[in-house]
Amino acid sequence: MRISNLLILLWIALVPAAASAQPIEEKRVSFAAGTSGATIRASLKGDQITDYLLGASAGQTMTIDFASSNPAGYFNLMIGSDPAAIHIGSTAGGHFNGVLPGSGDYRIRVYLMRSAARRGETTEYTLTVSIGGKPATPAPAAPDYADGLSGGPDWWQVTGVSAGDTLNVRAGPGAKNAVVGQLANGDRVRNMGCQMNGQTKWCQIEFPGDQPLVGWAAGRYLREAAAPATQAPASHEARGSVPCALAAGQPMGYCPFRVARGSGGTASVWITLPGGGERYLDFRDGQLVGSDPGKSVSHTRNADLNMILVDGAERYEIPDAVLYGG
């Protein structure tokens, strides 16, 4: 293992793993009558995580200020149970102010960075949150619906795929067409129209990114969804180098990478290849679920090191720190 080298080479912005030795404690926040905010003073130790839940409406403005006695203490802001944070404290800082995109629960997650949590460090913190402004006027109900063929929503979310499996994206609307990529539960894709093939509905979709995936997926695995949050903004990315080899028998060298992380081992990793271009690796819950269209991949683990093999030749060693932070 090359842990000492990796600690030198990885200059990454750290994000906490959602999975921890202790369950996440949830606390509902309420404001005193006649007020629009609250101040919370509390503490954390080690891998303790506290989620503060509060309801708000689309169009209102939320302001959060966070101060920690330990510089490794941060907060993330999430919408409901969606693991994709709209504010990541370790990269965006201890202040958030923004107009809320939807109505419902918002989740403020307070945590210690993974490295500090492992050392059993503690923090005393102050969390101040306020909500102001009037809710947005609801738009008239649109005629789009998730199981229609004409029109339909702008975005789908993949759901109903078996645990550990992926949804095949094909070159055309039918199971006999070539597979051009894979999607995992929770992925959001742009709706480009649906049609029937026999008794099965197929939808043409686009998965946005640096290398967009366009193809057809079975409609029974797609449900209407809101547009995804800004995808992998540069300020939320981390960069570094990982061991790599691009041919069988070739000694391992190092390749630059960048990563955009959610929580709990959800991460999109782009590895810069020496000859130009990038290799894309998609992780969910710490497991590799996809790569570039047409590529065969395998994933094994050695302690906290993820050993990735692409097309039986390319080799990459990706530590858990890249996926989880820490």
List keywords for this structure.
mainly beta; 5-stranded mixed beta sheet; 6% helix
What would you say about this model in short?
This protein is 6% helix and 49% strand. It is mainly beta and 326 residues long.
Q: Which range does the strand content fall in? A: over 45%
How many H/I helical runs?
Answer: 4
Radius of gyration: 21 Å
> In percent, how helical is the residue content?
under 10%
- What is the number of beta strands? 24
**How do the strands line up in the largest sheet?**
21-20-19-18-17-24-23-22
Distance separating the two termini = 17 Å
Largest sheet: 8 strands, antiparallel
Low-confidence stretches: 1-21, 141-148, 230-236
Overall body shape: flat
The chain-level structural class is: mainly beta
> Averaging pLDDT over every residue, what do you get?
80
Q: Overview of this structure, please?
A:
Strands 21-20-19-18-17-24-23-22 form an eight-stranded antiparallel β-sheet. A five-stranded mixed β-sheet has the order 1-3-8-5-6. The chain has a five-stranded antiparallel β-sheet with strand order 15-14-13-10-16, with no helix packed on it. The chain has 326 residues and is mainly β. The radius of gyration is 21 Å and the shape is flat. Residues 1-21, 141-148 and 230-236 have low confidence and may be disordered. It is built from four helices and 24 strands. It starts with a helix and ends with a helix. The chain has helices at 3-9, 89-92, 114-118, 320-324, and strands at 25-28, 37-45, 50-56, 61-68, 73-79, 85-88, 95-99, 104-112, 122-132, 155-158, 167-170, 179-183, 188-197, 200-207, 213-218, 222-225, 237-245, 253-261, 267-272, 278-284, 287-291, 297-302, 305-310, 314-319. Helices cover 6% and strands 49% of the residues.
